[in-house]
Write a structure and sequence with these properties.
It is built from 16 helices and 13 strands. It has 448 residues and is α/β, with parallel strands linked by helices. The mean pLDDT is 97. Bound molecules: ligand 8P5.
Length: 448
């Protein structure tokens, strides 16, 4: 009997983006600068000197982009809100024109039968708050709750699914430890403090929602399953450290109210003794958790690797994407199994999954042929279906990304979109993967 890949009735199919990566016009209509506005305009920080000044011009083209979503039959759209568009100084004065943009976007989605899924923070912290210490200042938990309340008041009731943060690991690893992302710090003393305050802020945002919210709120983590390069005790210990650092450092304070012991092992004296009371804030009941999956890592011990003493090992005879990530769909299934075992049967959404491959330019009206991206999607949807068959409480899937966009400091060259964007003309062109995904949605997976 051939395997059926039909998903449960009501499984939710969507696509995802984020504000700084697609909107453009970062300072329009009274918006304040974010740390990404500053970082992108700092020479040497961005590939090819790319910035989010225009990006996909979604700030002006959002109605047309909603029609692209409708053409795929999307049931949901995950977007983020630029904090400094609505609170130019991060706290205090509200910029109503900024709030109005997101209100118009939500209404456009609802009018087209697409469910809005809003992320409050997708890395673009207001620069004014960074000037006050940003994620290193414990007060940011209150600043974030103030911002969250402004958006709950403006959009709740129309937005039925909220996320506090997107991928706090990337914010601290990229923005505070290695410096490759905004705000570009390089300190193993700052990274744990920023990580902890991110989870305090997320907890404060969830608490604020419980007072006024009518629907669902959760938090989004990137998970990258780790596999030892050998059975040596050193490699197994290195894998354990890498797993705790990337996959447990944020979910544990949110869902267990504690940190894994490996973090003190990794950071040593740079790991603060956080007040026990903090975990009463970081640990809040969530309605769902969003998991972003791209790849796995095979890990070996390396005494010179800072600060993990662990490094990834490139795998032979397999496919890697343009961002250097191994195509490994078994890791997708393994991720769900691990998550359920450690944190219990919390409703889950895949809030991001996708791949960057080179896309050849096409003639007018054609479809961009992207077989490697279609293969990645097909393999990962099947792997996700296996997880559901194994009893994982998975409610939906958001493809990353609706559009080719600004891949942060890697610029526009790394293309994850279901739709190709010609950034010189802003023309959107569907890729073959978009057509395939539309069939997946129409048949609820039966076409896989
Ligand atoms: N090494 N390594 N391993 C993989 C670690 C992945 C960490 N980066 C992400 O998950 C980011 C997430 C982000 O939300 C989005 O804004 C980004 O555009 C995508 C694509 O990059 C993904």
């Amino acid at each position: 009997m051939t395997q059926s890949y039909r998903f449960p009735p009501g499984f939710h199919w969507g696509a995802a983006t984020s504000a700084y990566q697609i909107e453009g016009s970062p300072l329009a209509d009274g918006a304040g600068p974010s740390i990404w506005e500053r970082f992108a305009h700092t020479p040497g920080m961005m590939a090819n000197g790319d910035t989010g000044d225009i990006a996909c011009d979604h700030y002006h083209r959002y109605k047309d982009d909603v029609q692209l979503m409708r053409a795929l039959g999307l049931q949901g759209y995950r977007f983020s809100i630029a904090w400094s568009r609505v609170l130019p100084e991060g706290t205090g004065r509200i910029n109503q024109k900024g709030v109005d943009f997101y209100s118009r976007l939500v209404d456009e989605l609802l009018e087209n039968g697409i469910e809005p899924n809003a992320t409050l923070f997708h890395w673009d912290l207001p620069a004014a708050l960074d000037d006050r210490g940003g994620w290193l200042n414990r007060d940011i938990a209150h600043w974030f709750a103030e911002y969250a309340n402004v958006m709950y008041k403006a959009l709740d009731g129309r937005v039925k699914r909220w996320s506090t943060l997107n991928e706090p690991w990337v914010v601290t690893d990229g923005g505070y430890l290695h410096g490759a992302l905004a705000p570009g710090h390089r300190s193993k003393y700052e990274a744990p403090i920023a990580a902890h305050n991110l989870m305090r802020a997320s907890g404060a945002g969830i608490q604020a929602y419980r007072a006024v919210g009518k629907h669902e709120i959760g938090v989004v983590f990137n998970i990258e399953p780790k596999y030892p390069a050998s059975n040596s005790p050193e490699d197994i210990a290195a894998t354990r450290r890498a797993h705790a650092y990337m996959n447990e450092q944020f979910a544990d304070p949110a869902l267990l109210g504690s940190y894994p012991p490996e973090l003190k092992e990794i950071f040593g004296p740079a790991w603060p003794d956080f007040p026990e009371d903090d975990f009463k804030l970081t640990q809040q009941k969530v309605d769902f958790v969003g998991l972003n999956y791209y790849t796995r890592a095979v890990v070996k011990h390396d005494p010179n690797a800072y600060p993990l003493k662990a490094v990834p090992v490139k795998q032979p005879n397999t496919t890697y994407t343009e961002t250097g990530w191994e195509v490994y769909e078994q890791g997708f299934t393994d991720m769900f199994t691990w998550f359920k075992q450690r944190y219990g049967d919390i409703p889950l959404y895949v809030t991001e999954n996708g791949s960057a491959f080179y896309d050849a330019p096409v003639a007018e009206g054609d479809v961009v042929q992207d077989p490697l991206r279609t293969s990645y999607l097909r393999k990962h949807l099947k792997a996700m279906h296996h997880a559901i068959e194994q009893g994982v409480n998975l409610k939906g899937y958001y493809a990353w990304s609706l559009l080719d966009n600004l891949e942060w400091s890697l610029g526009f060259a790394k293309r994850f979109g279901l739709y190709h964007v010609d950034f010189a003309t802003q023309k959107r062109t569907p890729k073959a993967t978009a057509k395939f995904y539309a069939q997946v949605i129409e048949t609820n997976g039966a076409v896989l």
